Each structure stands twice: as C-alpha cells, then as structure tokens.
Amino acid sequence: MSTSSRGIVLERHVAVVGGGLVGILAVLYFAKRGWTVSLFELREDLRIQENKRNISHKSINLALSARGLSALKNTTTGLDEKVLESVIPMKGRLIHAGEGKLKSQPYGVFGECIYSVEREMLLELLLNTAATFTNVKMYFQHQLKWCDFDIGKLEFENKKTGNQVEYSADLIIGADGAFSTVRTQLMRVVRMDYSQEYIPHAYCELTIPPIVNNKGDDDFAMDPNHLHIWPLHSFMMIALPNRNKSFTCTLFMPFENFEAIKTEDDLMEFFKKYFSDSIPLIGEERLKEEYFRNPKGSLVSIKCKPYHYKDRAIIIGDAAHCMVPFYGQGMNCGFQDVEVLDGIFEEFNISAVRSDDKLASALEEYTKRRHPDATSICDLAMYNYIEMRSSVVDPWYLLRRRVEGTLYWLFPRYVIPLYTMVSFSTMRYSEAMQRWKLQGFWLNMIGMSLLPIGAVASLWIGYRQFRRV
Ligand SMILES: Cc1cc2nc3c(=O)[nH]c(=O)nc-3n(C[C@H](O)[C@H](O)[C@H](O)COP(=O)(O)OP(=O)(O)OC[C@H]3O[C@@H](n4cnc5c(N)ncnc54)[C@H](O)[C@@H]3O)c2cc1C
C-alpha cells in the first residue's frame, strides 16, 4: 500500500473521458470501488433544463436488454429497478407488410422482451446517481485535446472559458465515443490494429405523435409493446415507443436515396410508394417538417485492438467498438464492458489505493477477454442489418426461426435461437456466435438429410393415390 510522507493513504484517481451512457456507468463502478473519480464531458450538463434543447443525441430511444440490465443491476442498488419503472416492454417485432397487413414475430418463446428506454432519461438518472457519490467530480464542457499516459496528464479545453486546463490521473478511461480522442492518443504509443467501415445507409428520425382516445386522453397510435418494422429490402423504417405515447421512427436508407429526395413532392411520392400506412400516423405536415429538418446520420462499424496501455489507460464503449445499430446492442455491449472490467478488477484484487498490484495485467486481461466478444457483436450487428430489412419477410428465414424456436422450447439446453443468446442472456458474444454457427450447421445437415426422405415419402403417397384412381 502506498502512503504519502505524512502517512496518508494515497487513493487512486481515475479520469473518465466522455460522459455518455457508458462513461457515466464506469464512473459509478469506480466510485463504488472507492477510487477518486473525475468525469470530463465535452457537452453541457443535460440536467440543467436550458441545456436540453442544445444537446443533440444519436437516437432518442434505445432498446435495452439483458446485458445492459445486468450491468445496471450490479452497480448502485436498485438502479435497474428504477430504469425498469420508466421503460416500455417490447415483446416482438411487428412487421408492416404493406396494404395494412401486420405480422407479429415474438422475440422469445417464453415471452421474453426487450425494453424501449429514452436516452435522455437514462443519462439523467445515471448522472444524478453519480452526483450522490462524494468521491466523484464532474467537469462539463471540457474537451480532451491531448494526453500523456506515462505521466497520467490530460489537457482539456474548457469550452466555457476557452482556457486550456490540465489534470492528472493514475488511470485514464476513454469512453468518448466512436471518434474517440483517447483512442487517437493511444495510437501514438500502442501498436493498435484498427479498422472502420461505413455502410451505405444513413438514418433520419421522425415522430409518430400520440392520438387522442375516446376518453379524451393521449394514447399510442400503434401497439406500444412491439418494435415496429417496415422492411423494404434496400431500406427500412423502425419505430420504438416513448413514455409520452409517441413513437420515434428511424428511417434507414442509402445516402443516395436521401439525396434524391429534394422537394416535399419527392418526399410524399416516396412515402406513398413505400410507407403509405405511416403517413396518417406521422401526419403530412410533420413528416415534411421533420424529414427536411432532422440530420441524416452516418453509420460506422469500428474494431480495434488492444484496448489498453500498460496500467495507464483503457478504452470502452463505442470508443473501443462501434457497431451499426441493427442488433440494438451498442449501449448494452458498452454497459457489459464496464461490468466485465469490474469483474476482472475483482479477480486481480485491484485496490483503490496506489499499490504494487497487477493493474497492468488486469487491463491486458480485459483486452484479451473482451476483444473476441466485441468483434463478434460488431459482425452480428452487420448481419442483422440484412435480417431486419429483408430476411424478416423471407419464408426460409421464418421457417428456420420457427424450427429453432420449437427446438429451444423442447430442448432449451441444446438449441438456443441467436436472438435469445444475444438479447436475453449475458453469454459471451463470441460463444453465442459459435453456437449459432454450429446450430446452423446441424439444422442444415438435418434439413438436407430429411429432403430425400421427404421426396421418397411424396413419391410413395403419389404412387398410392395413382393406384387408387
Ligand atoms: C440510430 C442509433 C440507434 C441506436 N440504438 C441502440 C439500441 O437500440 N440499443 C443499444 O444498445 N444501442 C443503440 N445504439 C448505440 C448506442 O447509441 C451507443 O453504443 C452508445 O451511445 C455508446 O455509448 P458511449 O458512452 O460509448 O458513447 P457516446 O454515447 O458516443 O458518448 C461519448 C461521450 O463522449 C463525449 N466526448 C467525445 N469526445 C470527447 C472529448 N474529446 N472530450 C470529452 N468528451 C468527449 C461526447 O460528448 C459523448 O457524451 C444506437 C446508435 C444509433 C446511432
């Protein structure tokens, strides 16, 4: 244990860069472990009312599932329960198949569900919880510019005053999102493998407002307990419910399609052709206003390795692995990063005071353990990019889903649908990926061996009917 010359125990100091969902959860875990924690966030404090309208986030609501809930549960007591009080359960997909046809596809055979949660509400709750710890300090409007990991120095620009300010820390955590400055700084000192891929699709958010029901109250315009999908192969729209009875729709399509819509007439023609049942729900005027006003966000998948540097720094969340949003796992995976890191600290007995423990080995172990999982979910998210806009209406895909679901119901230990492993369990993503591939192999083998039996059986039935005539 390290003490100062006056015999005072020297607490370890961690600087968390990035006050998004993952960064603030990391603050809670480190505060609970007894570290001195400083959070540095580029934006203003969103808990201050007038800042709310200035803060633009990536998506208004998110799908929260088992991994995210587990990480929330294992930090501050009751945090998961508080979150669950403000979410809307979604038990399956509701496919808008054109001409008003709706098809429900439950997510799980045992009634499992994912939850629609508002990003702002979750951020606010996490920030308020962090503020209850006396060992946490939060600095807003601080943009990291540069850091020297070996001496634990960080340089920020205070956006309010324009001044450059320096801080120091024993450990630096980069939770500063897809375009992470901590990651860029790490690349100077670490031989980091790095890849990124932009997909051709962009996204734009639209709103389905509440309707007034016959009691005169606000009500949902569609079933709130589903994630709604309008799958159109090369593009799609989804909608998630909000607590104020509205839905946030996200339209995903290639940039060139967005660019081709130049006028209100182009827009209405496009929506009438592809999403006609959504027009009365959104409302023509709102659709025109929001479509042309709201930003068109790009979608990128980022992989890198390693995530750490000696006992000095680590990156988590989107800073380490950014994925396309089609599995609804970006935040869930980032939350699980924090839980996994905490578990490794526990295993390696990492202390909250400066000591000769094995912090460097713990961080190395984190990269070793987490990298295959982060890579797997980035790949699965890319796979779901096709599944959601196309496969959900493909009869073969639906047949495999049904077969897998039935087998899971009969033999839950041996066959587990991919969606269940990813969204309703905390199983390692890499294990889920391997099991899914193996299950696919055996299902195909069984299917292929049943084909000749089926052919012989049909011939036999045909022959018997022919003899009877
Ligand atoms: C359209 C869309 C839909 C999505 N839907 C889902 C979903 O349903 N479920 C799900 O689990 N995930 C979803 N995601 C993914 C999810 O939004 C991200 O994975 C999650 O926000 C990552 O959190 P983070 O804290 O790592 O990064 P971020 O949320 O990006 O936060 C990073 C923070 O760092 C700050 N920052 C950046 N640079 C600096 C700097 N230099 N100095 C100081 N601060 C800095 C930023 O201001 C920001 O607050 C979706 C993403 C998109 C785009």
TrEMBL record:
Q: Which SUPFAM superfamilies does the UniProt record give? A: FAD/NAD(P)-binding domain
**Highest taxon of the lineage:** Eukaryota
Enzyme Commission numbers on file? 1.14.13.9
Question: What's a single GO MF annotation on this record?
Answer: kynurenine 3-monooxygenase activity
Q: Where is the FAD-binding domain?
A: 13-379
Which pathway does this polypeptide act in?
A: Cofactor biosynthesis; NAD(+) biosynthesis; quinolinate from L-kynurenine: step 1/3
- TM spans (from-to): 12-31, 407-429, 441-463
Listed cofactors? FAD
User: Which cellular compartments is it found in?
Assistant: Mitochondrion outer membrane
Q: Which Gene3D superfamilies match?
A: FAD/NAD(P)-binding domain
The GO biological-process annotations, alphabetized, read as: 'de novo' NAD+ biosynthetic process from L-tryptophan; anthranilate metabolic process; kynurenine metabolic process; L-tryptophan catabolic process; quinolinate biosynthetic process
Q: What class of enzyme is it?
A: oxidoreductase
Question: Which PANTHER family does the protein's record reference?
Answer: KYNURENINE 3-MONOOXYGENASE
Put simply, this protein is called: Kynurenine 3-monooxygenase
Q: What is the species listed in this Swiss-Prot or TrEMBL entry? A: Rhizophagus clarus
The upper taxonomy is: Eukaryota, Fungi, Fungi incertae sedis, Mucoromycota, Glomeromycotina
